[in-house]
Each structure stands twice: as structure tokens, then as C-alpha cells.
Amino acid sequence: MKTPVVTQKRILRDVIISIFIYALPVVLMLLSFKISGQRPWKDKPNSTTIQK
Amino acid sequence: MLVHIETIFRNLNGWGLPVIMLLIGVIEFAYGLYENHWTKNEKVLDIVCFVVPRIVVRPFVAYVGLLLFPRLLPEAKNIFAWVPFWWGFAIIAVADDLTQYWYHRLHHQLPWLWRFHRTHHSAPYMGMAMASRQNIIYTIFFSQIYLTTTLVYLGLGYPVLFVTGVKALITTGAHSSIKWDKPFYTIKWLKPIGWVMERLISTPATHHAHHADTSDDGVGYYKGNFGNMFFIWDLIFGTGIITRQYPSGYGIKHYKQEEWYAQFLWPIFKSKKEGSELSANGPMVGDALPEKVPAVVAGS
């Protein structure tokens, strides 16, 4: 049994859209650093704890 | 306050979630929500699927990950530990759940993958009993396990703790036979929250539709509603349907009550039931029909 061609095309289209969705939070984070001038990679690690 | 939240999530990811599931399961059972569908064969399958991944598969993946990564990528350990918490949370929430959306969707849309996911859909009921019910191969290759293990090694372990906790609560709630989302569709002042909620995350209404045994009633939609934590993927890709109703029946029409070991271990063990998808010469997909074009229908 084969996957219908219409389904194959939808999967391909949606995979391409997904690549942009995966990248979106990373791009927005880098954009926020550019706007705010932050350079957290030069400071000590901070994702291992919440600011208390 | 944040320390307490951290403690809650640490416990949730350890013993907390299984205890919550057991408690909800007892309530569901006490209220008769499994009706007379929970036969001995279903009970054994549900319990084996609940226990084995927790005591064998997940510890094994974590152990192998901890063993392999330092050898393969010694320089990469904690390389992204500088990522601020909330950005890490957003990156992992998207990466984890979108990957699971794809893993799940492909098991429905590629016929050769269907039988690895069929076990999750064969239950003729919803609830905690079937929430963990999966074929062992589906569990072993559960793609986002590897993704999150990698991200933990790269230094994003702390956000992972919170994402997996929130996700577990949402997916558990979506599988529950307790229709906790109903007030959000019926009580006037809760409706705006319900409108946002049913589009953002999986709810009993949208996820029960995915487990329906038919789509003929306009409520069931087992060829869509693939989202696990987030429902927005189904909206973006046009694979979702929102009706704010619950299907009348669950499971698969061509279910033959296959032996629990065949459902859990196919293709290592096969079913003796004639004509079963899990039997030696069974069909790849038992109810193969022409695909309908999915459409998103907003709730009233």
C-alpha cells in the first residue's frame, strides 16, 4: 500500500514550513540580543537556574 | 516561590506524574468511565505499556546518552548553557512538540508506519489506562526522547525539566476520560479562555476526536488532530478539527482484540487472529479508504 501523492505533497510542504517554525524561537532570541545589546554567551551560564 | 515551582517540577518528572495518573485512573474507574471495555487482555496491555517504558526504555536511553555524548562530542557539553531560561523554554517547547507532531502524523499518514502506532488507537475507551499504551518499537524510536536527551547534554537541561512537566500534564489531561474542558464551552465567562485554550493546547474534545472509531458523525477525526502538547500545529498545517463535542465511540472499527503481547511487541510477536493487521499475512491498514480533505472548523 502506497501513500497517496496528495499526502506526499502535503507532507513535503509542511516539512518545509516546519523548518522555519523550528528556527523561529532561535531567530527571535538572537534578534532580542541584537536589539538589547546583550551578549549572554560571554557571561556565566544562566539557563541552568532561574533568577531567584 | 520559584524554588517551590522548581521542586514541584522535579517531583513531577520523577514520581509525581505516575502518581497523578494512577489517582486519575482510580477516579475514572470508580466512576465507571471504562464501562465494560477494560477486559483482562486490555488490562495486561495497558499495565505493561505503563510500566516497561518507565523502568526499562527511558533509563536505558538516558544511560546510553550519558555514555555516548561525552565520547562523541566532548567539547559540546553545556555549550548552550548560556541561553536564558525563557528562550530555552521556547526553543525546547517548539523543538520537542513539533518533532512529536511529525512523529505522530507520519505514523498515521505513511501506511507502513501505522502498525507501530495502532496499539495506542486500539483501546475502545479513553483514560489514564490507555494514555501510555504504545507498541515497544514506537516507544523506543519516540523521536523527541533523543532530541531532549541531546539538548540536556548541550546545557538546556533546566528548561527541559519544565517543558516536559508542562507537556506531561497537558497530554495526560487530553487523554483523560474526565471531560474537564466542558465548562470552557458552556459557561459564558469561560468561553473566551476556552476559545484560546482549544487552539493552543490539546484538550479532551480535540484529542478524543483523534481517538474516535469513526469520522461519520462529524465529531471524530482520527485522520487529524495530531497535536500532543500544542494544537497550533494542526491549525498551521490544516490537520485539525474543533467541534467542542466528544465522539460516541473510541478505538478502531476493525479491532480484533489482538493478544496483548502482539500489540506490545509486533512485529517480533504476531497475532493469531485471522485478518488482523498484526497477523503474519494481515493487511497493512485494515480500513484503507480514500483520504478526505481536512478542514478546520471553529467551535461555536
Automatic annotation (TrEMBL), chain B:
InterPro entries noted in UniProt: Fatty_acid_hydroxylase (IPR006694), Sterol_desaturase/TMEM195 (IPR051689)
GO annotation, biological process: lipid biosynthetic process; membrane lipid metabolic process
Keywords annotated in UniProt: Lipid metabolism, Membrane, Oxidoreductase, Transmembrane, Transmembrane helix
GO cellular component: endomembrane system; membrane
Domain Fatty acid hydroxylase positions: 90-239
Molecular function terms from GO: glyceryl-ether monooxygenase activity; iron ion binding
Sections of the chain in a coiled coil: none
Superkingdom of origin: Bacteria
UniProt-listed Pfam families: FA_hydroxylase
Compartments, as annotated in UniProt: Endomembrane system
Membrane-spanning segments: 15-34, 55-73, 79-98, 136-156
Bilayer disposition of the protein: Multi-pass membrane protein
PANTHER family noted in UniProt: ALKYLGLYCEROL MONOOXYGENASE (PTHR21624:SF1), STEROL DESATURASE-RELATED PROTEIN (PTHR21624)
Name of this protein: Fatty acid hydroxylase family protein
